[in-house]
Amino acid sequence: MATVTLEKLVKRYGALEVVHGIDLEVANREFIALVGPSGCGKSTTLRMIAGLEPISGGNLKIGGRIVNDLPPRARNLAMVFQSYALYPHMTVRENMGFSLKIAGMKPEEISPRVEEAASTLDLTALLDRRPSQLSGGQRQRVAMGRAIVRDPEVFLFDEPLSNLDAKLRTQMRTEIKKLHAKVQSTVIYVTHDQVEAMTLADRIVIMRDGYIEQVGSPEEVFQRPNSKFVAGFIGSPPMNLKDAEIADGRIVFANGESLPLPKQFADRVSAGRKVTFGLRPDDLYPTGHGIHSGHETDVHTQDLRVSITEPLGNETLVFSEFGGHEWVGRMLNPRPLKMGEMLGFCFDLSQAHLFDRDSGKTLRG
Ligand SMILES: Nc1ncnc2c1ncn2[C@@H]1O[C@H](COP(=O)(O)OP(=O)(O)O)[C@@H](O)[C@H]1O
Ligand SMILES: [Mg+2]
């Protein structure tokens, strides 16, 4: 059973604390993504789990056992880095088998393991090549193969796809997902890319400045962000987040324009409250062109002038001004739009979010 448990885990570099006592329970065979902006402590946390960084405080348990002081080798985990760190003078076969050789395994035991991993990763035809004769995606697969042959209970990935171009990244994402289904290990996967986190993980851990902001399934963190930070970090294009003030059942923006207070917040805020109003592009759309078109329960309609459009084929992103802010909406089944044209928009207020402006915390119940 490879559960991974972080209990008040702290990392200090000298006097500087960069991970502030975080708690996390990773279930056996769960795929967890640690996501957050650069510098928030993702790699440091992963490296403490791997045993590559000493732990400054708290406990790390693997399979229920405290492993704070165990060396990496004794933790039964394998790590895949962003830089593939392959040995250039070795073939794919030798690269993949190297850690087993170091561990003292006999060649006749190593061979079948390497061949099985190669077949899983579609590398069989490449076993006798050197890294310089491989594409970026193939090198990344070899780096994964090197981890798989060790049959670890826990896989740790640190931004493994960051060096690949967009198309290859999408392909490799699918392969990593298939791989997880096949090997059924516990995975902790670090990325700054929320799309990667959303598409891969069972649960997402959103980190910020050395703290965990929220943990939840992709659906939970998307639909019920606990803070303005999570709301703005998850989802693409990002949620419209606009500062406003509550007055008399309305949300009033800086230029005096306003929206009705969404019904779900009617009893939760009173006049004078400074808030940030949040609405996803999916919930702001030209009338008749939204996901919930015709089924809205709390909708505000408003004519707006189209400032910019970004046609994406199946949908068009539509930018316009309201309340002294720029908003982005999503038009499904798009028709061609002209810049500057007036268009009726729906604000689906049943899907709106409200955050306290100062604390950034949700005002949802
Ligand atoms: N060896 C180090 N010495 C001092 N500070 C470090 C060291 N490694 C990382 N940090 C700091 O720790 C914080 C978290 O870094 P890191 O875990 O690499 O972030 P992330 O992987 O989320 O981008 C950053 O502020 C970084 O500057
Ligand atoms: Mg990092």
UniProtKB/TrEMBL annotation:
Signal peptide: none
Entry membrane topology: Peripheral membrane protein
Keyword hit for Transport: yes
Domain ABC transporter: 4-234
Gene Ontology MF, one: ATP binding
Gene Ontology CC terms: ATP-binding cassette (ABC) transporter complex, substrate-binding subunit-containing
Keyword Transport applies: yes
InterPro entries membership: AAA+_ATPase, ABC_transporter-like_ATP-bd, ABC_transporter-like_CS, ABC_transpr_MalK-like, ABC_transpr_MalK/UgpC-like, Mo/tungstate-bd_C_term_dom, NA-bd_OB-fold, OB_MalK-like
Gene3D superfamilies to which the protein is assigned, alphabetical: 2.40.50.100, Nucleic acid-binding proteins, P-loop containing nucleotide triphosphate hydrolases
Superkingdom of the organism of origin: Bacteria
BP terms from Gene Ontology: carbohydrate transport
Keywords (A to Z) from UniProt: ATP-binding, Nucleotide-binding, Transport
CDD domains: ABC_MalK_N
Subcellular location: Cell inner membrane
Family the entry assigns: Belongs to the ABC transporter superfamily.
Protein name: Sugar ABC transporter ATP-binding protein
